[in-house]
Structure formats: C-alpha cells, structure tokens
Design a protein that fits this description.
The protein is 49% helix and 11% strand. By secondary structure, the chain is α/β, with parallel strands linked by helices. It has 3 domains: 14-149, Acyl-CoA dehydrogenase/oxidase, N-terminal domain (Butyryl-Coa Dehydrogenase, subunit A, domain 1, Orthogonal Bundle), CATH 1.10.540; 171-262, Butyryl-CoA Dehydrogenase, subunit A, domain 2; 270-413, Butyryl-CoA Dehydrogenase, subunit A, domain 3 (Up-down Bundle). It is globular, with a radius of gyration of 22 Å. The relative contact order is 0.11. Bound molecules: flavin-adenine dinucleotide.
C-alpha cells in the first residue's frame, strides 16, 4: 500500500498518515494486507541489492514508518496498532516471506514494545516499580509513535550469557540519576540504523548473578557508543549485525526498559518471548515453497520451461508441502499457547516449535534447490538468498537448535529441582 507524504510535512509523512493508522489499529487482517503489499511491491524487489551490499534496508523502514508498521506492537492507548504476541508472530511471518533480513531486524524492534508492554503486565512488580515502568514505557512508546524511532536488541556477547547460562559481561554501575554502562555486544543487528539499542547488562555488584540482569535503552548518539568491526556474513546480510561498544555510557534512570529483576522473571515465566525469532524463518520456509511451485510451473520470468510433469519433482513438492504444513501447525499452536507460567507441555512445545521452524526453513530451501535445478541458483532469483538466510535461524540464541534439543531432553526427564548423583 502506498501512503502519500504531505507537502511541507517535516516528519517523514507521519502526520499525514496518522489517519490511515486509525484504520489499521487493532485490525490484524488490514495490517497483514499492508505488510503483504509492502513486501510484494517494495521489500522483495529490493532484497537482492541489500543482500549484495550487506547494507541496511533503510527504505523498507521508511515505508514501514510511514504506514504505521513501526508502531505495530505499541498498545493502542499509546497510539500504536495494538498487536500483541500471537498476532505479531503471524504478521512477522508474512513479512519474512518477502525479505528475511527486514523481518529479522524488525523482530528486534517490535519485541521491545511487546516485552515492556503486555508481557511486563503479566509479571510481578512492587507498586512503585510498576508506576515507574508505566512512565518509562510511555516515553519509549512515544519515541516510536511520534518520532519514528527504531529499537535494536543487542544481547549477544560471544559468551554463555545470551544462552541464559551466565551473567552478561556488559556492566551497569549505579550512579546519581542513572547508570554507567561498559561492555561489548556482538551481532548487534540494526547497528548504525537503530535509534536505541535495547541492551541486556548486569548490575555491577560484588556477586554477579543472572537475576541482576537489566534491560536498558541506549541512545545510538550517546557519548561512548561506537559500532565497530566488519560485516560480511554468508546470509542475513542486510541485518548489518556489527559489534556495539559502550564505554562509560551514561544512561538516565528513565531509559530502563524494565525494572530491576523483571527481565530475569520474564525469561523464566514467559518463555515464549524467545520464540519471536521464528516468524522470519516461517516466512522463509513459505517463500521457498512458493518459489518452487512457480518455478516448476514455468512461471518465473526468464525461465519459462515447465518442469512440473516429472514425477520426482511432484514427489518433492508433496514432501515440501507436508513439511511446510507441519511447521505452520506447530508454529501456530505454540504462538497461541504463549502466556505467563505456561504448563510444562506448552513450554516444551515452544522449544519444539523453534527447532522445527528453524530446521524446516533450511530443509525447505535445500529441497527447493534440489528439485528446481541449476538455473534456480542464479543470483537474479531469490532462492539462493533464501537458502543462505535460512541456514542462520538455528544459530540464534538463546534457543539455538542444539539448545532446544538440550532443554527438551533435560526438561522432559527432570522436574524442577530434581537431580541425579551421577549426571
Ligand atoms: C544474522 C544474525 C543476526 C543476529 N542478530 C542478533 C541480535 O540482533 N541480537 C543479539 O543479541 N544476537 C544476535 N545474533 C547472535 C545470535 O543470537 C547468537 O548469539 C550468535 O549466533 C552466537 O554466536 P557464537 O559463535 O557466540 O555461538 P555459540 O558458540 O553457539 O554460543 C555462544 C555460547 O553459548 C553457549 N552454548 C552454545 N551452545 C550450547 C550448547 N549446546 N550447550 C551449552 N551451551 C551452549 C556456550 O557457552 C557458547 O560459548 C545474530 C546472529 C546472526 C547470525
């Protein structure tokens, strides 16, 4: 959908398009229509260039800002489109069909309002913390709604911290009126593009614990923030995930995205918060299937030869369809089960969903390449990019494919608190 910029408006057309946002607020189907139109008409045609350059899709974000999509997970009472967890997952999968890197980076942005919004509402907080949190998040929501700000989520440090097994090495020391941050994040998607980096760090105390994890919004232009290192990966190249260095960065108290102790509580009690990397890859799996059908039917521009009459190709498409439906089924179910304190079976299913979607996305691309054949590998076509992008889903912490297996194995056999003498 094309929304027009008003002549003379100096806010990127947001004032002009607010009337349009009203139509979208709370309306998942209408939002899906906007995402599909943007994806088909804008994101997909641009994807090869961003991939080749390993550059950030700024134009896609400008389009999303103008259409209100940047405010999709901001609650309606704060001027956003009011999409909560389950709706977000389905909409983000639609975005992933058209450009994986846009959907993956958008996930980092959209999760901050989800986590600080309705997920935080489900968690326990003393009344004073709840009130201050309400004030802080209103400020962050307004930055998205009124200023078109973009949030990133650089958590990874190359240690066991992002896997949830050790405190973050980035430290926040309490000082008058705020915090002093020091540390280094790797794979900071949206580096150089985000307005705020939502950083996980550890409160600097003599005894450091994962319980003391803090979630802070670090302004990109704060003194002491720098982006360093090269970026030339095999896939998801347009995420521009370079390193973020923070040296004595002062962060005022109101930049706290969650009160003390709440991130740790969220990670334990709202485990589906980590499932939000899946939608991108569900979209990639769907895109690989869609491409294969068009290709075998001879509908891809420049390669009009039909291949659909060969039984082996029909069998592969059948196999792909089955895998795709299996992935969609568990993905949809897991999204629908997201809640605070889910029962054990739902938590285990969330791990299984993450594992299934991430591994299936790559498997779908593998099968697509095998059955489409050599010409489908041309860089002018999207399949080889889908293949490269799809491989990286299983590496995303804290729920890598391996760690999902690890958790599933342990948590099916042990109840909390149980241990054996000889483990
Ligand atoms: C394209 C892309 C974009 C990304 N964007 C972001 C982003 O925006 N924000 C962000 O925070 N991160 C991001 N990441 C990083 C990602 O989430 C992982 O943190 C990263 O891939 C881990 O790399 P590593 O080599 O440190 O991995 P690993 O070695 O897999 O993991 C790091 C540590 O975790 C522990 N660990 C790993 N596997 C196991 C296991 N099976 N059992 C026990 N412990 C284990 C170990 O201590 C290990 O040293 C991105 C990654 C990619 C590829």
């Amino acid at each position: 959908m094309e929304t027009s910029k008003q002549a003379g408006s100096d806010d990127g057309g947001r004032t002009a398009s607010r009337a349009e946002w009203g139509r979208l607020a709370g309306n998942r189907d209408a939002i899906e229509g906007v995402i599909r139109a943007l994806g088909q008409e804008k994101f997909a045609p641009r994807a090869a260039r961003y991939d080749e350059e390993a550059s950030f899709p700024f134009e896609n974000y400008d389009d999303m800002r103008e259409a209100g999509i940047l405010a999709m997970t901001v609650p309606e009472r704060h001027g956003g489109l009011g999409m909560e967890y389950e709706a977000y997952g389905l909409l983000a999968a639609e975005m992933g069909r058209w450009c994986g890197a846009t959907a993956l980076t958008y996930n980092m942005h959209a999760c901050t309002p989800l986590w600080t919004g309705h997920i935080a509402d489900d968690l326990d907080m003393p009344a004073g913390d709840r009130r201050r949190h309400g004030e802080n998040r209103a400020l962050h929501f307004s930055r998205i709604v009124d200023d078109g700000a973009i949030f990133a989520q650089p958590f990874s440090e190359g240690s066991a911290a992002a896997a949830g097994k050790a405190p973050f090495g980035t430290l926040a020391a309490k000082v008058d009126g705020g915090w002093l941050l020091n540390g280094r994040k790797i794979f900071a998607s949206l580096s150089g593009a985000a307005t705020y980096y939502g950083v996980l760090c550890t409160e600097d105390k003599p005894e450091k614990s994962v319980r003391d994890t803090l979630f802070m919004a670090v302004p990109a232009d704060a003194e002491g923030v720098s982006i360093v290192g090269p970026w030339d990966p095999v896939g998801m190249r347009a995420t521009v995930s370079r390193n973020l260095v923070m040296e004595d960065v002062f962060i005022p108290d109101e930049q706290m995205l969650m009160p003390r102790g709440v991130y740790h509580q969220a990670a334990r009690r709202w485990p589906h918060m980590f499932l939000t990397l899946c939608p991108t890859y569900m979209g990639i799996a769907q895109a690989a299937y869609d491409f294969t059908v068009s290709y075998l039917r001879g509908e891809i521009e420049g390669i009009p030869v039909k291949r659909r009459m060969y039984p082996t190709k029909q069998i592969t498409v059948a196999e792909m369809w089955i895998k795709l439906q299996q992935a969609w089924a568990i993905f949809r179910q897991a999204l629908s089960e997201a809640r605070v304190d889910p029962p054990k079976a739902d938590r285990l299913r969330a791990y299984a969903a993450q594992y299934t979607v991430m591994e299936t996305a790559n498997d779908m691309c593998r099968l697509a390449i095998r059955t489409c054949g050599g010409q489908s590998m041309l860089k002018s076509l999207p399949l080889e990019r889908l293949y490269r992008d799809s491989r990286l889903g299983s590496l995303m912490l804290p729920w890598t494919a391996e760690l999902c297996l690890d958790r599933l194995g342990r948590e099916t056999l042990y109840e909390p608190g149980e241990a054996d003498d000889h483990a």
